[in-house]
From TrEMBL:
Belongs to the transposase mutator family. This is Mutator family transposase. One of its GO terms (molecular function) is DNA binding. It comes from Thermus thermophilus (strain ATCC BAA-163 / DSM 7039 / HB27). Keywords: DNA recombination, DNA-binding, Transposable element, Transposition. It holds the Pfam family Transposase_mut. GO terms for biological process: DNA transposition. InterPro entries: Transposase_mutator.
């Protein structure tokens, strides 16, 4: 039987030689065209290395005596390298380990890219990250969504610790989404939220109509202290989920139907009527559940004070939840542990940057119809001098 297999090293060598000849021929022609058009004299060659998928190639690059000639050949390659660096960062942001990113780049380019090399590329992102986190904010945001997730981080001299990553998403007065900030702190607390809201204020955010959050520890207190004129909407989706965990399985469908009639009400009277019906049906069996809904009814129904077109997107924190899910997905890819606090911030930054790019020209659903009403609410609550 004949062996038709090809020696890969031989094939790579053939391809490298073909690439070398083709590129050197193109550069020679470039120099000839330049000299014919602009004059001058040839001045030999210099050598330059080029890494390809099939291995490194040494090229003889033509020179012109006065140094005016520059081949255009390397510009696309340089752009390709920049694209590949961006690709490496995107892979890193997606939760792929630095070792695996290096392996993929090595396959694409033929070189060797160690985990430390990829880490150095990622380190170059830190100045952009800090600029993003410190950028000035607009004075007005119609809505601000707040949430937190917990991540495991390796701390020097402490080992692995669980920390809270705080995130803030704003909807501008014109209806566009902006990631206002993200922070990593040891715990989730009233002090933490208060400090973060003060930072937003220092960066220029003065007026907010509505904050939308889960039942985060201390967040209501912090909002009242820093933005006393703002309203607070408690996320109805989170509240429904937490409630269902507190009732028996056989009652969950019935409880969900009754609670849905509250949060899907078209006006406050209808919602309060549904809440009263819920209390009458379930108070004896689940007194604490019913008491919690009554206690938080004002915050759960705050969305009814705003334009109908926007109510579906402001009654829950789902807008920010989508971004948090993406951060969590990368966390799982990293075996749920980050090597440093900066690694957490870099991943959130990459996700935030992609999120903003995705929605930078798209207004929030319903905002177009409600824009005049939102402006009127702003002017009523924050009258301009």
């Amino acid at each position: 039987m004949h062996d038709f297999s090809i020696d890969r090293s031989w094939l790579d060598a053939v391809v490298r030689e073909a690439v070398k000849q083709a590129l050197e021929t193109v550069m020679e022609l470039e120099r000839e065209v330049f000299l014919a058009e602009w004059g001058g004299k040839k001045n030999g060659y210099y050598e330059r290395g080029l890494v390809t998928k099939h291995g490194p190639v040494r090229l003889r690059v033509p020179r012109e005596r006065d140094g005016r000639f520059h081949t255009a050949l390397f510009a696309p390659y340089r752009r390709r390298m920049e694209d590949l660096e961006a690709f490496a960062l995107a892979m890193y942001a997606a939760g792929i380990s630095t070792r695996k990113v290096g392996e993929v780049l090595g396959y694409l380019l033929g070189g060797t890219y160690s985990a430390s090399t990829i880490s150095r590329i990622a380190e170059g992102v830190l100045p952009r990250l800090e600029a993003f986190r410190k950028r000035p904010l607009k004075p007005r945001y119609a809505f601000v969504y707040l949430d937190a997730l917990f991540v495991k981080v390796f701390q020097e001299n402490e080992g692995v610790a669980t920390e809270a990553a705080y995130l803030a998403l704003g909807i501008t007065e014109e209806g566009y989404r902006e990631v206002l900030g993200f922070w990593l702190l040891p715990t989730e607390s009233s002090t933490g939220w208060g400090d973060l809201l003060l930072e937003l204020k220092e960066r220029g955010l003065e007026e907010v109509l509505l904050f939308i959050t889960d039942e985060l520890p201390g967040v209501e207190t912090a909002i009242k202290r820093v933005y006393p004129k703002a309203h607070w909407q408690l996320c109805t989706v989170h509240k429904l989920r937490s409630t269902l965990r507190r009732v028996r399985r056989k009652d969950q469908d019935a409880v969900l139907r009754d609670l849905s009639s509250i949060v899907r009400a078209s006006d406050r009277n209808e919602a309060l009527k549904a809440l009263n019906s819920f209390r009458g049906r379930w108070a004896d069996k689940y007194p604490q559940v019913v008491a919690s809904w009554i206690q938080h009814s004002a915050a759960l129904l705050r969305f009814l004070d705003y334009p109908k077109a926007l109510q579906p997107v402001i009654k829950s924190a789902n807008l920010l939840e989508r971004m948090i899910k993406e951060v969590k997905r990368t966390t799982k890819t990293r075996d749920n542990t980050f090597p440093t606090p900066d690694a957490v911030l870099k991943v959130i930054y990459f996700v935030a940057e992609r999120y903003e790019a995705q929605f930078q020209t798209r207004k929030l659903q319903g905002f177009q119809q409600a824009e005049d009403e939102i402006r009127a609410i702003f002017n009523l609550r924050y009258p301009q001098a």
